[in-house]
Specification:
35% of the residues lie in helices and 18% in strands. By secondary structure, it is an alpha/beta fold. Helix 1 (12-21) packs across helix 2 and helix 7 (204-213) packs parallel to helix 9. It binds S-adenosyl-L-homocysteine and iron/sulfur cluster. Residues 113, 115-117, 120, 122-123, 167-168, 201, 221 line the site of iron/sulfur cluster.
Length: 386
């Protein structure tokens, strides 16, 4: 007997192909998909407009199963964080952030992360495994239908999804792409491409694939104006340095639903927040603007955690940095920190990960390397052992 299939693993095409294996027509897959994603259904018996014969076949071969919820925390500001069990000692987090005009869900793509950014607590945990498509979608499926019940509404609650939880989504591309298609599908969550954002630390070849396959809004975690400093903060920069990354951003714009890339820049006290960093950044952006790069900046006040050995930039320095960029004509905002009291802010999502690689070990060694502001244009820093 084959193992039961979790239907959350399929985008509509995949579900249609699966239904065909059961001897069913494609339009049945559309009905089923709508039951699952639009109505939150998991009990085939209740899917009243499906033929009884299909319901019986499904009951024997398939299921729609959420991830077990290990904990739920609600912040004073309305933010809700869930910790989901993904088995094998791993847990991942999703965060709902309500605002006046939108409801954003921040979801995870991996248990842990292999990139190992210096300032990120997920990175410090190491990497365990990629989430499956169904595990990515299950976060949205659960949150949307939980919130509808909780708020007693039949209306859609989640209007935006950001892939900014745990993990590097573009290092899990094959599972991410069907999940994105389910989010966008009119028979699924019906989100527009502008309202689904993939955030990446800069996996250049996969940015090109995303542009071709499923061009949603793109956020790129920049964090440094020079290769020397970025090498030390985002180790992936050694593989895809700034010139390549920014060229990929420019290429992406030809396909993008928004006419700009959002650059995220985490403000680290004394590390990347000095006036000379702002000047170098402006030069960098101007140099690439000439070849068609259009961007906005989102400055993220660093959310400290003890193992990082780093501190948050003082607010006036963040404001001065934002002003320098804005004065140079680069639209820059400062991200409001939400869910601080429940550790749900950016980079605080640590879940609980069994590191199956040596990432955590490498991060522990790096902890002893003190980061100092790197002068603009300095030679590339010696790379810590990887
Ligand atoms: N791996 C992807 C997406 C997840 S991280 C990426 O790196 O883009 C989402 C955002 O949170 C990224 O911009 C990341 O750099 C930022 N971030 C990570 N740790 C942080 C911290 N401690 N404080 C503030 N922002 C952080
Ligand atoms: Fe991974 Fe993103 Fe954290 Fe870097 S910032 S370690 S890429 S999750």
């Amino acid at each position: 007997m084959t193992a039961p299939v979790n239907l959350l693993d399929f985008d509509l095409e995949g579900l249609a192909a699966y239904c065909e294996t059961l001897g069913e027509k494609r339009f049945r897959a559309t009905q089923l998909f709508r039951w699952i994603h639009q109505r939150g259904g998991s009990d085939f018996g209740q899917m009243s407009d499906l033929a009884k014969s299909l319901r019986e076949k499904l009951a024997g071969a398939a299921h729609v199963t959420a991830l077990p919820v290990l904990s739920q925390h609600a912040s004073r500001d309305g933010t809700i964080k869930w910790l989901f069990d993904v088995g094998g000692g791993n847990a991942v987090e999703a965060v709902f952030i309500p605002e006046d005009d939108r409801g954003t869900l921040c979801i995870s793509s991996q248990a842990g992360c292999a990139v190992g950014c210096r300032f990120c607590s997920t990175g410090h945990q190491g990497f365990s495994r990629n989430l499956g498509t169904g595990e990515i979608v299950a976060q949205l499926w659960f949150a949307e239908h939980f919130l509808r019940r909780h708020l007693q509404t039949g209306e859609r609650v989640i209007s935006n999804v950001v892939m900014m939880g745990m993990g590097e989504p573009l290092q899990n591309y094959d599972r991410l792409a069907p999940a994105l298609r389910t989010m966008l599908d009119d028979h699924g969550y019906g989100l527009s491409r502008r309202r689904v954002t993939v955030s990446t630390s800069g996996v250049v070849p996969m940015m090109d694939r995303l542009a071709q396959d499923c061009p949603v809004a793109l956020a790129v975690s920049l964090h440094a104006p020079s290769d020397a400093l970025r090498d030390a903060l985002v180790p992936l920069n050694r593989k895809y340095p700034l010139a390549e990354l920014l060229a990929a951003c420019t290429r992406y714009l030809a396909h993008a639903p928004r006419d700009f890339i959002t650059f995220e820049y985490c403000m680290l006290d004394g590390v990347n927040d000095q006036p000379e960093h702002a000047r170098t950044l402006i030069e960098l952006v101007r140099a690439h603007a000439a070849s068609g790069l259009r961007c906005k900046f989102n400055l993220i006040p660093f959310n400290p955690f003890p193992a990082s050995g780093l501190l948050r930039s003082p607010a006036p320095r963040v404001q001065a940095f934002a002003k320098a960029l804005n004065d140079a004509g680069i639209v820059t905002t400062v991200r409001k920190t939400r869910g601080d009291d429940i550790d749900a802010a950016c980079g605080q999502l640590a879940g609980d990960v069994r590191d199956r690689t040596r990432v955590a070990e490498r991060m522990a060694r790096q902890r002893s390397v003190v980061l100092h502001p790197v002068p603009a244009g300095a030679a590339r820093a010696p790379t810590p052992a990887s």
